[in-house]
Amino acid sequence: MAKIRGWMRVVGSSAAIGAAAAAWGQTSGGSAEQPAAPAAQHTGTTLFDPKADAVADVQAARERAKANHRNVLILWGDNQARFCGCLHDQLRSDPRLRTLVADEFELVLVDTARFEKNVELGKHYQTDFVALGVPNLTIVDARSDSAVGVLPGRDAILKPPLPPRCFDSAAIAKFLESGKAPQPDAATLLAEGQARAKASGRPLLVSFGESGCAPCDSWNHAVANRVAGSALVRLFTLCRIDTRRTPGAAELKKKLSGPEPTGSPSLWLTFVDAEGKPMAGIGKMPRFDPRDSGKPVTEWMRAAAAGKMTDEEFESIVLKLVAPLETQGASGGGGGGGGIGGGGAGK
């Protein structure tokens, strides 16, 4: 055990790892009933939430992942182990890893608390971190709840590790590529959304976008928030189509939007009827710039909700549509990206 604890022990000054990463907003959509919030900021002590219910967080991530045809990525770690924070920061800062995680996975951060917590959860997903040490990455099939693969941190660490780049990005990328969920085409996603809308009786709201654009991140942030996201899920059937990774997305967007879609250049929302056509009487999405205001697009959605959106829900959605930019400005973070983040709940 002494050898294992040596692997996870904080060594030297934490300043070598650099500043903390900004919080990540979880992308979600589909029929997720429990939108998740961004992870806590990496402060050296709260990256892995010691109060989180890891089992519930993973199961909620599975529901979001199933709705978006993704898998779940678990980062097992300890707040006292500097390499755990280093791996999280590298997932965020390396462009290839950031895009892979944002596009293909729902990330959950699980606290191992000096190997005293979540041990059975780790074994369920074939990750015996008591033997392996931390950090580790585990890919979970969202549908079968089984481990697709495990990458022990010790197998990917650079020798010597040079913070902030402690791990082999190519090895991590290869691991993530091997664990991507099958991606259906856009027509299939739309058909699934229509079926869910018919069963629920809620209007179908389809979003077209991709990770890395500010309006898309703002929309994902709103969907991921507990209050705003729960309101959107209560009022609408959400269908997310990624214009970068979904086959046929561009063609379907053009079919639904016409030659000049409104909204923003990279995010477009539309209500679709049972016949796969833009819903009559609602109109097109107004232009949306998260640097300005989320009110016009929220007013548009409120009209589609036919009086069912409360004032509290309206204000929450408006607030969360612009919050990502405010968060970046406060934390010094760079341009937006699609979400990776831990469990927990926003306010």
Describe the structure.
With 347 residues, this protein is α/β, with parallel strands linked by helices. It has two domains: 2-178, Glutaredoxin, CATH 3.40.30.10; 186-331, Glutaredoxin (3-Layer(aba) Sandwich), CATH 3.40.30.10. Helix content is 41%, strand content 15%. The protein is built from 14 helices and nine strands. The protein has a four-stranded mixed sheet. A three-stranded mixed sheet has the order 8-7-9, sandwiched between helices. The protein has a two-stranded antiparallel ribbon with strand order 5-6. Helix 3 packs across helix 4 (95-104) and helix 11 (226-235) packs across helix 14 (311-331). The protein is elongated. It starts with a helix and ends in a 16-residue tail after the last helix. Residues 1-44 and 325-347 have low confidence and may be disordered.
Shape category = elongated
Rounded mean pLDDT is 80
State the low-pLDDT regions, or none: 1-44, 325-347
| Name of the CATH architecture of the largest domain | 3-Layer(aba) Sandwich
Give the helix level as a range of percent: 40-55%
Number of helical stretches of at least 4 residues: 14
- H-E string: HHEHHEHHEEHEEHHEHHEHEHH
Quick one: how many beta strands? 9
CATH class of the largest domain: Alpha Beta
Q: Structural class given helices, strands, pairing?
A: alpha/beta
- Largest beta sheet: strand ordering: 2-1-3-4
Query: How many structural domains in the coordinates?
Result: 2
Quote the distance from N terminus to C terminus. Answer: 39 Å
Question: What is the CATH homologous superfamily assignment of the largest domain?
Answer: Glutaredoxin
Radius of gyration: 20 Å
| Major sheet details | 4 strands, mixed
CATH topology of the largest domain: Glutaredoxin
Percent strand: 15-25%
